[in-house]
Amino acid sequence: MTSGRSQGAGPHRRWARLGLAGLLAASGTLHLVRPDLYLPLMPHALPAHDVLILASGVAELVCSAGLARNTRWAAPASVALLLAILPANIHFALATSSDPGSPAWLPAVAWLRLPLQVPLIWAALQDRPIGNGVDRS
How many angstroms separate the Cα of 63 from the Cα of each of 6, 36, 43, 67, 104? Predict the structure, then answer.
């Protein structure tokens, strides 16, 4: 069981965690409702793009729920998810930069989203529950 306390010290830590939960919920839902939007991000070397897109959407929803409930597994799972999707974001940035048919703004947006992974990972690590023993959530 957990002690119910969190290692976060201020309200900004709680809001960072909850903000990421909301972002993951929105993105996960979009993965399931409009998977076609994520096809350009998929590296060609990966198989079963549609299955991977749906699986990552489900993973985002699961992490979102865990962050919202402040479960012990949610922070490391969210960090792992953010690191797992980083290669797709890099692929998309490279692909849009080399595509003469891409709108001028798209490569800039694709490259600017890469450093955003750092504050997203920071947000996942905020306000984590601490406890002594096994967390059953």
Answer: 18, 22, 23, 6, 33
Token pair for residue 74? 């949610």
Burial class (CB in 10 A: 0-12, 13-18, 19+), 87: middle
Do 35 and 101 contact (CB within 8 A), yes or no?
Answer: no
Helical residues (DSSP H) of the chain, grouped into ranges:
11-33, 49-69, 74-98, 105-113, 117-124
82 closest CA partner among 66, 59, 65: 59
Tens-place pLDDT, residues 4-42:
445 545 777 888 999 999 999 999 999 999 999 999 888
The maximal CA–CA distance of the chain, rounded, in angstroms, is 56
Alpha carbons 22 and 69: distance in angstroms, whole number: 12
Tokens of 93: 């940035």
Matching residue, tokens 């940035």:
93
Going 123 to 13 to 20 to 4, the CA torsion angle's sign is positive
